[in-house]
Amino acid sequence: MKFTIFYFSGTGNTWWVCREFAKIVNKSEHDAEFISIEQDDIQSMGYLQKKLQFTDALGIAYPIYGSTAPQIVWNFMESLEEASQKISIDFKENKKKRFGFILTTMALFSGDGALVLNDEMKKIAFPLLGAINIKMSSNISIPGFHYDPVEKEKLEKRKQKAQKKLKNFFKKLRNDKKKLEGRWNLLGKLGGWIQRKFMDWALNRTIDWNANMERCTKCMLCVKECPTDNITFENEAIRFLDKCTYCMRCYNFCPTHAISPREEIADPKKYKRHRGCTENFKLSILHD
Questions:
Q1: Are the CB atoms for 29 and 2 separated by under 8 Å?
Q2: CA-based Rg of the chain, rounded to a whole angstrom?
Q3: What is the per-residue DSSP string for 207-219?
């Protein structure tokens, strides 16, 4: 069985989960690959069609933002739907068993955030068989939402729990058994609905990106690494457009902490940054 996982990861949590899940699958008699939706190949309809045609189990992985997926993931699902529509009728009517699954990462709460792509997965002929949330570390410690990343020891414990959960999840999928977290949790569904309703309001209230040019060294890391090309350098200043997907990458990885969600600097001693969940983590992993 061929497992293909398309993922988006802002600061490395979701990338790590996909990597661990792929290791588990590849140690069995099955095969898995995980692909960043930031890769250049993703822009090719032919590339997406080929991946869909030769995949038995299609996974989508993303960090939970207010009980939903980041906008960049929703945009990618539109591309997948377009690719699936151009595939031959034989593929869609083929009775070969195909299924979809979702892997999400969260810091606090997800509700039914792993299920929000249910309709989109049906449209591309990979109905959801499984969906789970993996608790990792916060990457959004900012004024107005002060939730620091967990300490290294606590993160390692979470990663160990995650590995066990991923192994059990794979067993469920391999044996064609449903595992949909949040499906019957009415409180979780209510919480997820409330978060989604107020997500835009909360983001607009707490985040209005600013770069302090006195701190900025003009290294251009933020410009280079922004997944939506939302950051530019013009007239000797860093500018932010209106395409932010709130991945927090620029904020967490700015080497001089020049980027803040408001005009005032977010003191790194008070507001801790999350720079990946492995030693010597490099941002290039997330798109190369």
A1: no
A2: 19
A3: ---EE-TTT----
At 232 the three-state DSSP class reads strand
Residue 10 in this model has a pLDDT that exceeds 90: yes
Cβ-contact 211, 241 below 8 angstroms = no
DSSP string, 27-56: TTTSEEEEEETTSGGGG-HHHHHHHHHT-S
Rounded distance between C-alpha atoms, residue 5 and residue 18, angstroms: 7
Range of the structural domain that residue 172 is part of: 2-196
Helix (H, G, I), strand (E, B) or coil at 64: coil
pLDDT score recorded for residue 145? 83
pLDDT at 196 over 70: no
Q: Between 97 and 161, whose confidence is greater?
A: 161
In a domain, 277, yes or no: no
Q: What gap in Å lies between CA 161 and CA 172, rounded to an integer?
A: 17
Q: Which helix (H) or strand (E) holds 59?
A: strand 57-63
Rounded distance between C-alpha atoms, residue 100 and residue 117, angstroms: 10
Q: Which residue has the higher pLDDT, 46 or 65?
A: 46
- State CA 196 to chain mean position distance: 16
Domain count of the fold of the chain: 1
Alpha-carbon distance 242 to 151, whole Å?
Answer: 33
Note whether residue 112 is domain-resident. Answer: yes
Q: What is the pTM of this model?
A: 0.93
Strand pairing partners for 280? none
